[in-house]
Amino acid sequence: MTNVSFETSAALAHPREPAASEGRVTISLTNISKLYSGIAALSDVSVSFNAGEVHAVLGENGAGKSTLMSIISGVNQPNTGTIEFEGRNVSPLMPDTSAELGIAISYQHPAILDDLSVLENLQVSLPKPVFAGRPAREVAQEILDIVGLEIPLRTRAASLTVGQKQMLEIGKALATKPKVLILDEPTAALDKDATEILFRQVRKVAAEGTAVIYITHRLAEIRQIAQRVTVLRDGKVGGGGLVSELSDEAVLNMIVGRKLESAFPPKLAEAGGKEVLTVRNLSGNNFKDVSFEARSGEIIGVAGVAGNGQSEFMRALAGLDRSTGEVRLDGNALSHRQLIHHAAFMPADRLTEGISATFSVRENAALGALSSFATAGVVSRKKEMEEVTRTFESLAVKTPGMEARIKALSGGNQQKVVLARALLEQPRLLVADEPTQGVDVGARFEMYRILREISSGGKPVIVNSSDASELEGLCDKVIVFSLGRVVATLTGDDVTEAKIVAAAVNAHHHIVADDTEDERRSGKSGGAWRHFVQTDNAPALPLLIVLIGLALVGYSSNPNFLSPFNLYNMLMLATALCFISIGQTIVLMLRGVDLSVGPLAGFLVVVASFFVNDGQTAGTIALGFLLMLAGALAVGTVNGVLIRYGKFTPIAATLAMYMGLQGLSFLLREGPGGYISFSVTSVLSAQLGPVPYAFLFLVLCVVASELVLRKTRFGWQLRAIGSGEESARRIGIHNDRVAIIGYVVCALFVGVGALMLMAQIGVGDPQQGTSYTLSSITAVVLGGTSLAGGRGSFVGTAIGALLLTEVLAVISFLGLAQMHQYLFQGLLIVVAAVIYSTVRGRASS
């Protein structure tokens, strides 16, 4: 991202309001209602959005703002009501039809796919007309320039900051030149400079006739950017009007339904209390020599331009990251390991670090304090419920129930649950990184009150915030960071927004970081290597080295190991495993698995053994191959349908298929029988020197598959689903369709592998094939494909399959027992995992 500035520009202070196109309605919603499990998220909401106008939508967390936007973008459909676009009824909207109409949305939680590069994220998210026949890299770079992002297009999105992901999300929305632009809490994770860039682009598109729907919790932004406002409260329209005709007090009353007497609780009356926290020369990743002290009753603020070490410092202070220096709490020096047990940490990125998406609301809140609810190691559910309920009441957490999934809550209420967990831990130190990010004004008041109560009780509270006005109102002391160092410490009357901003801006020009830090920041030192080890194909390199080394070991023990005859046999065996493993790679990248690949290969050979025989007509032999193809298509389709529509887990669906296919194989043949035609096996086994033609065909398939994975929309979509299914759905990918196709293609590759198996064994044997299930998974894992989905490489899988085959050959040549096969395979997987994680970890640091 561009270098940021805390300066408030004239454009922000005195924005030019685009002329609203009164009477020219772009999109209108009438009597919209939406129910979730019988609970109304929206009730009879009617609102219109005009072309050329920035229309702010406000409301507390859970008021229905995000639900309304998801209906406009087509992600969800209302139970009742109608939607009109430019005067015609378009109900119900779906993501693809919404995009076709010209509706674009930037989500509060960006639909960015971590396992894809920045360029791939843009390619998979944006419709083809955006690129208009131009080079994708050129168009993508223009999008980054529009939103002020200075990052390489090949960067994997997982390495981006929250703010960079938000700007990339905004860039995606702007790139479509929409008629309706929805911005859901766009500045929640942005600094001042990025906010200014955003506002400039919003004004530009509004002036060009776009209807901008702007969701925010920050009242100051309404005056800067919006002409009209609509307030939602409890799923209903609570009021609205022209911004110029409404006071802040009136808007607040509409939002919360009550008066808020003060945004911030009273500060500490007098300084000079007992010193409870002392930090001396604390240094760590991206920060150095931080020193300050906190006295009883004080709230310490951390300020500065985003990316200057504040978040890293907060993690180190909570004991989550290693650091050097001294931290004393109540006079006692604590190591980073000890800090973990005494400090409670509220992360800025609640989705990644703050909540466990699969846990309930109660479990998320109580997770860090289970020991306090236990007697002799047994947790008292009654005590747990009482404490969680009491804490939720103090924070006004809105939840459909204690056992509801945490994802069912609005973003602000999720943040309250994170704070509740911190309170339940009863910490001696509270470290809060952007605690009010995405939280409405009413809830912020409650959070400020709770933070002040904690500090008044003698526990130090450290708050990092990108909102200087929040630090001014809440904190007794503020330390300002620049380039990882404290450049100013403000106390008492000096804690003002103007002085906080000035300290950050003035220091930004004369504090110089170490040369090594500059190199790391610029990304120029070792950039090519760093990028390579982060790619999906990086695991292929160490595998290839091991493959060559093992071949030399085999040759040194017996020169016949690399004889043409043995090379041919190894390559033929590896070819079958490679094709089956390629299929397994596809489903693992979808965050699935296919346990039926082994029995499917064996079953297809059994089917062929009834038709592909010597003495059979060409038509009968062709029918045998067609039946193999039909069998593979049927199995892949059934697996996909069971998983996507039957809601079976991948393991359950494919395990059932495993057993069914194995039973069918024994039903067709009780033992080996039906010899395969010699002319067919001869063709399949043909060779060029020591290399089978089938292996050369495999190499072509691997290259072609890799190109499809990296260069085509289907490949991006496949990886997108594994990387984040919800994000993939929000950008318009038909997840079910793509996933079913993935399972079908997997089965087709297994079918090709069955042809190789047929050439090797030459007979229909119901006991053959099952071992390929475990072997294929092993080869895929060795090749570096992530079991969590989203990342994988067909090149790595192919080399992994070759390596497994070579291990078997070496064991045979060395005269070792079969148990060594499993020992070597397990050792290879462990060593590969250690190498990949170590190399990637160093490259990303």
How does this structure look, described?
With 845 residues, the chain is an alpha/beta fold. It has 3 domains: 155 residues, P-loop containing nucleotide triphosphate hydrolases (Rossmann fold); 248 residues, P-loop containing nucleotide triphosphate hydrolases (Rossmann fold), CATH 3.40.50; 313 residues, Orthogonal Bundle (ABC transporter involved in vitamin B12 uptake, BtuC). Helices cover 50% and strands 16% of the residues. Helix 16 links the parallel strand 19 and strand 20.
The residue-averaged pLDDT reads: 84
What gyration radius follows from the Cα positions, in whole Å?
A: 31 Å
Number of strands: 26
CATH architecture type of the largest domain: Orthogonal Bundle
- Strand pairing plus helix content: what structural class? alpha/beta
Question: What's a concise summary of this model?
Answer:
The chain has 845 residues and is an alpha/beta fold.
